[in-house]
Each structure stands twice: as structure tokens, then as C-alpha cells.
């Protein structure tokens, strides 16, 4: 009887550990690039805005809910776009809106990701 009670306690402990909420992992630049890779032809002016691109934009928006994640996404996009040839920055800035996603900070090559992203998200929280 004591053995079956110990097994129940062990099973309950395993269940609780398995069901415990996990700390969310931070967004990586690799994930950001993966989400938006299908947008590159459109951003270069050599392709159409595709459903895959908009799906990636929506997925990135859903994945980047915390200020650090949005700052990571912003910094990653700035450095990635700077390293790609032929990217039309005006086109890039318009992609979220065309995909029905509201971004609370300006999308530009000069945005201060550490400051403007944090401040714009704080303003959203106040509303």
C-alpha cells in the first residue's frame, strides 16, 4: 500500500513538472529573419507582396510581445536590411500596414531600437 501511495505521489510530481509553465524563450535574430525571409523579393521591388510574407509579419508580431523581443526584432531588421542589397526602405516600412499589422514605432533605418521601441510600447500600455 505504501508503495502504491509513493507511485501516486511520484506520478503527481511528474505531472506537475510537465504541466508547469515554461519561461518564454527570448526571440532571436535568426527567428526574425526566418519569419520575414519571404518578404525580401517585395522589399527589393522584384516581387509581389505575398501571403507568406504577411503570414511571417503576423507571426513575428505575435512572437514579439515583450519590449526586449521587439527591440531584438527591430535591431535585427536594421542590421539585416543594411546588409542586403537593393532593399527599398520605403517599401519595407509599408509592409506591416499592407499586411494589416500595426507596429507602434517607426520603421526606418534610423530608428533607435533601444529607446523608441520601449517608449512606443509604454504609450500603448497606457491606452
UniProtKB/TrEMBL annotation:
GO biological process, any: lipid transport
Pfam families (UniProt xref): Tryp_alpha_amyl
Signal sequence extent: 1-26
Record key words, sorted: Lipid-binding, Signal, Transport
Residues in Bifunctional inhibitor/plant lipid transfer protein/seed storage helical domain copies: 29-113
InterPro entries according to UniProt: Bifun_inhib/LTP/seed_sf, Bifunc_inhib/LTP/seed_store, Plant_nsLTP
CDD domains membership: nsLTP1
Protein name: Non-specific lipid-transfer protein
